[in-house]
Amino acid sequence: MNNLFVIGIFLAFFLQFLLFTKKNKTLSDKILCIWMFVIGIHLFSYYLYELGFWDRYPHLVGATLPVPLLHGPLLYLYVAFAFRKEQQFRLTDYAHFLPALLCYLYMFPFFFFYTAEQKIMLHHGQLDAYSTFSIVALVAFVVSGITYSILSFRLIGKVEKLIHANFSFDEKISLGWLRYCILGVALIFCTVAFFSTLQSLFDYPFTFNVDLVLYAEIILFIFLLGFFGIRQEGIFSSITINDEEQIADTKANPNGEYKKSGLKVESAEQHHQKLLELMQADKLYLESKLSLSVLAVRLDVSVNHLSQIINQYEGKNFYDFINEYRVEEFKERAVATCNQHLSILAIALDSGFSSKSSFNLVFKKHTGITPSQYLAEKKSTLR
Predict the structure, then answer these.
(1) Is it the case that residue 14 has pLDDT exceeding 50?
(2) Which residues, in sequence order, are CB contacts of 168 under 8 Å at separation 6+?
């Protein structure tokens, strides 16, 4: 088992080095680099504990007790800065580290005023000092991890809404791997909660070292997080996106104005009609990288107002609005005699889609069947 710890520690510090030397690092990369270092220190501390170093060097006792309180905040900030255009810490971001700081401050007397003998006695449960604090710290660790995992999931949901409100494509801004990252962290915290509850409340006699299960999960998590994190670029590094506040609130008030907007109903109807005419005449949806901001410029209307108009009059977000036109375009092109020599993918790309996977998902969402099934049904009706 010691070999597994050595591998995990090596991986954590090696991936930290790779992230540190990565070119064009984003703030999210730097946070991941720090997180890998923290995980490496956490694993190394437990490895020394398993080897009996805490008895030989008593001043190591409790040195990393508050470290688990850093994992949740670092996860959340890693996810948050993957999406923020503003790559700079705000004052509120530092507040996430207060629990760990307060934990260290509370342990200050233990670190500097307890003798080596007292620390050994406390380590072996021969002193009651800090026993209640250790339980509180464990509960705080579990609550922190689960809470930050939930917050990170909610943040991804908001970002997906943001993406689909501003872009007609999502190939380079997939969030699936981040979901798996969050699930991995949540699994680790749930494992701690499960075993701690059985041990503390029910005094269940496990026949194996439950800590090893937890740390084995952490080591696997290190490998997956490092592999995907190093490959990941900033979510919005190559595209222009408007701030989250620019997503429209489509509810209108009794005076005929959109909530939080000065757009009148009459003006909105005119812009909506102009939008439909522009889509039919110029077929802007054939541009695979079409964004809300580009379309807003063509209509000479603000991004926020255009988003509101699409939501209010079409009952869908920008992503679905544009891709519905592309689906209809594909249907027309697929049955045209002049396109019979083309593959399904070629026709889809000509219709404005930018990838096969995106096309298949969008087509099935709008029609309920796959492109192949649709063409097979069309051919059977034409016979």
Answers:
(1) yes
(2) 285, 288, 289, 290, 291, 318, 319, 322, 323, 352
